[in-house]
Design the sequence.
């Protein structure tokens, strides 16, 4: 992006401001406010660089949620207000993402997904989105795995550049597979093996040690003959779990599974304290740690100990620590530990697909720097 001469130009910047909103009538007239602004903060360096470079107009473009057309509950108004607070200058919310006059300064287009043509990557919609601008910057790593009009289509219509956040995400995550400091530990949690089987296959071939938690650990436990009773697990994915275990054995690396768990009746809801200690010890020995997915039902404080233990151990580690998006980021933020990590990714699905070796359409559409 640094090769973009922004002076006097009108620049369309795709950001990922898909942030959580909470209802609070005392906060704004609409009753909506941003409850986690980490994705907005992550885009500020790119916005500021364009401002410092003399861009005439900077129009930010984002989706929010999955609207079925215009929806006042999914307006980007509260996001524009929070962005203005963080940026220290006005950020005007425009009435639409197409067909509007784009003012000088910084503005935010209304939710681009109010138009179904966005997700269809409709060429005419992409043309109308691009029409007012001289250049395009994609800084939305969290949406880079989607071939939508604002992430892929526009990049073929304007001189296109990668933003600072997108560049950093790709640099860090690609480095995990290319040349990590070793030992390289990957900790994978979350509910289902089926959603992360490809990244498990990739990591078992690259990492020196894997640790499994969350609901997906139950599928691994069931695959090894453990009775998980009525716990969440995928019976039809036991062969996949056995294949990952076999690949780890063939490479001669350890794959850690819980050897004690927390029960809620007849359901496993977290890794146990012994397992949390084993995973913390593994983190202490590693030089690179990648983590994606909680260790249990962390949204319930009664079952957050395993997730909190992993986050705390990573925060106290001297290793390169990368948190790979999604609920792991939420957990780290809730504990106030984000600044203790080497890198906290803004993209859950995008980070996993990059680690799987899949091309990201939003990245592929940008010419090489």
Sequence:
């Amino acid at each position: 992006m640094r090769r973009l001469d922004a002076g006097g130009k009108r620049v369309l910047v795709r950001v990922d401001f898909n942030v959580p909103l909470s209802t609070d009538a005392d906060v704004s007239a609409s009753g909506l406010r941003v409850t986690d602004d980490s994705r907005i903060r992550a885009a500020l360096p790119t916005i500021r660089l364009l401002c410092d470079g003399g861009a005439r107009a900077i129009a930010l473009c984002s989706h929010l949620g999955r609207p079925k057309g215009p929806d006042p509950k999914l307006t980007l108004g509260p996001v524009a207000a929070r962005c203005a607070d963080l940026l220290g200058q006005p950020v005007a919310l425009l009435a639409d993402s197409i067909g509007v006059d784009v003012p000088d300064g910084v503005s935010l287009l209304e939710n681009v997904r109010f138009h179904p043509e966005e997700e269809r990557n409709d060429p005419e919609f992409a043309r109308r989105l691009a029409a007012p601008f001289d250049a395009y910057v994609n800084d939305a790593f969290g949406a880079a795995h989607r071939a939508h009009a604002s992430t892929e289509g526009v990049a073929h219509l304007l001189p296109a550049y990668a933003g600072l956040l997108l560049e950093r995400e790709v640099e860090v995550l690609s480095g995990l597979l290319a040349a990590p400091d070793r030992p390289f530990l990957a900790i994978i949690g979350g509910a289902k093996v089926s959603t992360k089987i490809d990244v498990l296959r990739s990591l078992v071939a690259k990492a020196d040690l894997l640790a499994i938690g969350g609901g997906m650990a139950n599928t691994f436990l069931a695959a090894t003959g453990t009775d998980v009773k009525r716990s969440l697990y995928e019976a039809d994915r036991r062969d996949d779990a056995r294949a990952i275990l076999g690949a780890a054995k063939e490479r001669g690396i350890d794959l850690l599974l819980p050897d004690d768990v927390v029960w809620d009746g007849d359901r496993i809801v977290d890794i146990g304290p012994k397992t949390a200690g084993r995973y913390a010890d593994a983190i202490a020995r590693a030089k690179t740690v990648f983590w994606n997915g909680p260790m249990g039902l962390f949204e319930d404080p009664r079952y957050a100990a395993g997730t909190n233990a992993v986050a705390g151990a990573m925060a106290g580690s001297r290793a390169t620590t990368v948190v790979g998006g999604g609920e792991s980021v939420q957990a780290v933020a809730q504990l106030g530990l984000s600044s203790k990590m080497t890198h906290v990714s803004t993209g859950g699905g995008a980070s996993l697909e990059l680690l799987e070796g899949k091309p990201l359409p939003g990245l592929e559409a940008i010419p090489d720097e």
